[in-house]
Design brief:
41% helix, 255 residues, 8 strands, binds ligand LXDSK4UY, TIM Barrel, aldehyde-lyase activity, pyruvate, lyase
């Protein structure tokens, strides 16, 4: 019995557009609610949401067997973090702040067991192997890991063609907020210079053998990013959805 098949990775390889949402409450209950909406992927955000290994694992557990793929975003692409989150069962990773092909190659190696990589072999203890119930997990896991890297700086865009040439990277996500900040337009991802950079980046990624991804939070940007080539497209953030609805409701009753 091999490692679980990563159908999300297969869908990206098949060129399917997949619609996602950020899961930022760092709790399995709202993430389970999001899954009922039918999103193709949900970002369990360990960078900007207060997630830790146990809350990430709990969200992966509630998503087990459901349509929505749990995409785990780490705070940074540290080898030990990748080892831990893969062992608790993540199969799709989103790694922020990738600025070079060398960094991308190191991330690929961190996701793979030897000889292809450096992932520590502790599968007997790991949820990922169903606690050794999958006897050939270590021999079959590498192929089921989907690695998505975030390019979100001027340096990353300058290195994008080299990053796109890295075998083992399955998708490249353009981070509009951090890219805007790095370009000197903090808080304004709709600035013409940032939009031009996003359009160019998505086009180059879409023209490669990788999937292009992005998050749209401003009105109309999701359709624009789709038209610019986004394949894994996040169209909302759960925390913002609740905050906006709650404030709007109170505004209706405020004297
Ligand atoms: O830079 C970006 O934009 C992203 O990486 C997405 C944001 O981090 C997401 O948390 C929404 O703010």
């Amino acid at each position: 019995m091999p490692a679980p098949i990563n159908t999300f990775k297969q869908r990206l390889k098949n060129g399917e557009r997949v619609i996602g949402c950020w899961a930022g409450f760092a709790d399995p209950y709202p993430t389970e609610v999001l899954a009922t909406a039918g999103f193709d992927w949900l970002v369990i955000d360990g960078e900007h949401a207060p997630n830790d290994l146990r809350t990430i694992m709990a969200q992966l557990q509630v998503l087990e067997g459901k349509h929505s793929e749990g995409v785990v975003r780490l705070p940074i692409g540290a080898d030990w973090m990748i080892k831990q989150v893969l062992d608790v069962g993540a199969q799709t990773l989103l790694i922020p702040m990738v600025d070079s092909a060398e960094q991308a190659r190191e991330l690929v190696r961190a996701c793979r067991y030897p000889p292809a990589g450096i992932r520590g072999s502790g599968a007997a203890l790991a949820r990922a192997s169903q606690f050794a119930a999958i006897p050939d997990y270590t021999q079959t896991a590498n192929d089921q890991i989907c690695l998505l890297v975030q390019v979100e700086s001027a340096a990353g865009l300058a290195a994008l063609d080299d990053i796109l040439a890295v075998e083992g990277v399955d998708g490249v996500f353009i981070g509009p907020s951090d890219l805007a900040a790095d370009m000197g337009h903090l808080g304004n991802s709709d600035h013409p210079e940032v939009r031009a950079a996003i359009k160019d980046g998505l086009a180059r990624i879409a023209a490669s053998d990788k999937a292009a991804g992005i998050l749209a939070v401003s009105d109309g940007s999701a359709e624009t990013y789709r038209d610019w080539g986004a394949q894994f497209l996040a169209v909302g953030v759960d925390v913002l959805l609740l905050a906006k609805a709650a404030r709007g409701l109170m505004d209706e009753w405020r004297d």
